[in-house]
Amino acid sequence: MSGLRSVLELRQSLLKSVGVRVGTNATLEALIEPVFQNEDKKAVKNKDRPDGLLILRTGRREWRALIEAKVGNDTIGEEQVSRYLQQAKNHKLDAVITITNQFAALPTHHPVKLPKNATKSVALYHWSWAFIRTQCQLLLKNDGVEDEDQVFILSEILRYLESDRSGISHFDQMNAEWKDVVNKVKSNATLAKTSDEVQNTIAAWHQEQRDLCLIMSRLTGSDVSLKLKNDHRLDPAKRLKDDADAFCKTPALNCALQIINAAADLEVTADLQRRMIYCSMRLTAPKDKQSTKARVNWLLRQLKKTEPAGFFIRATRPGKAETTYQALKDLRDSPELLESDTSNTAATTLEVVYEVDLAGKFSGRKVFVEELEKAVPHFYQAAGQLLKAWTPPPPKITRTESEPKTHEEVTLEKTDLS
Fold first, then answer.
1. Are 329 and 308 in contact (CB under 8 A)?
2. CA gap 262, 352 in Å, rounded
3. Labelling 40: which of 117, 134, 180, 385 has CA 20 to 30 A away?
4. Domain ranges in the chain?
5. C-alpha angle with apex 105: 183 to 166, nearest 5 degrees?
6. CA distance 402 to 27
């Protein structure tokens, strides 16, 4: 709360995530454990005293939000969130913001399921402690804070957030049912999309997706976000339902990370059937090169510094034409290996893939997350950040033989002859 009050850029960054703009002339008041008038103070003390209250004043306008935070393994339940929403409604506040170690894809996606009408008059947002820590790191890493005193304050806040004693953690293991789900998939058992084991697996995967974004944000020094469909961005319940349905049809967990200025989205797949992790980026093959071999060579030149272990390239063609797949190490000597035996059509898409075969370790709740969080940064550092998308060359002006040569062209010809 003191950090938000003291560091302009921190409150701008965090409040922007909930759709609130903080101008340089706006003032923020941050109160600890507020008690409102006309309330049963004993009841409030026992149950409903929030940790903080933010009041943002911009001219004559005010935006106010209750803050409730928990650390360690403590979480906020539906009953408590509902009480705070009612309290905010009673006092005509704008929002309730919860802060825990739980992850959410967006601040508008809350880890607690509530009826839609519960947030009709008061907005509900959620920040994970890891999200706040990442925002602090990005501001410091990118010199995003101008005032030297505020830089010091923010550095101290970050030092605390990174301390083992703070009670702040990242997502480090899948749900309790993870091993059973993996074994059921391996034995081809049927999964029910509404079962607790599937719902909890998808919910855990959604948290891990967000953690991957935060890890990549810290490593790259830029905002890395999840690529979500519009309806999933607006409705987390629909996202959970759709993903559970898709998982039961095809037992794989998927997500795509959007990295600023990267050649393509970084796609991640955890295949429970094969017990494999795949990281990939897909590029459009250069259209100014006619053969698959020439197009593959264009990609290989970009990956000349990549250690080839675990890396493959997939070439796809339009329609039902054959897809070809070869190891990077083999293609360096023989790029023609990606040619198709059944189609003369040149590859139109080239995909760089990194494979991690976990075998029996895949079902380990912690091991799976640890290996995934090693694989994604490794893929991006070794290959993803080296890739550049193909862009067509600019059009050229052609001169007909009947047109007179310019003075510059004549001068160039004389220079070449001499």
1. yes
2. 14
3. 117
4. 2-166, 178-386
5. 90
6. 71
List, in order, residues 6 or more apart from 218 with CB less than 8 Å away: 134, 137, 138
pLDDT value at residue 113? 84
The domain 2-166: what is its CATH number?
3.40.1350
pTM value is 0.81
Angle among Cα 377, 380, 386 to the nearest 5 degrees reads: 150
Secondary structure class of 139 (helix, strand, coil): helix
376 band by pLDDT with thresholds 50, 70 and 90: very high
Which among 37, 87, 38, 41 is positioned nearest to 65, based on CA atoms? 87
Q: What per-residue string of b and e applies to 222-236 under the rule 16 or more CB within 10 Å gives b?
A: ebbbbebeeebbebb
Contact by Cβ (8 Å): 372, 287:
no
Identify whether the C-beta of residue 216 lies closer than 8 Å to the C-beta of residue 224: yes
Give me 230's structure tokens.
């519009």
pLDDT digits (tens, 9 = 90+) for 12-38: 999 999 999 999 899 999 999 988 876
State the pLDDT at residue 408: 65
What CA–CA distance (Å, rounded) separates 277 from 294?
29
Angular region, 363: left φ>0, alpha ψ -120 to 50, beta rest: alpha
Element housing 365 (H / E) = helix 365-382
| Tokens standing for residue 261 | 């200025």
Task: Specify the DSSP class assigned to residue 44.
Answer: I
**Side chain identity at residue 122, one-letter code:** V
pLDDT tens per residue, range 298-332: 999 999 999 999 999 999 999 888 999 999 999 99
Stretch 276-281: mean pLDDT: 98
What is d(CA 94, CA 382) in angstroms, rounded to the nearest whole number?
46
For the chain, helix (H) and strand (E) counts, in that order, are 14, 12
What's CA 194's distance to the chain center, in Å?
26
Q: Once rounded to an integer, what is the mean pLDDT over residues 38-55?
A: 72
Q: How many residues does the chain have?
A: 418
pLDDT, averaged across the chain: 91
User: Count of CB atoms within 10 A of residue 197's CB?
Assistant: 16
The residue among 67, 75, 119, 96 whose CA lies nearest residue 234 is: 119
Please report the DSSP string for 75-119 in residue order: ---HHHHHHHHHHHHHTT-SEEEEEES---SSTTS-SS---GGGG
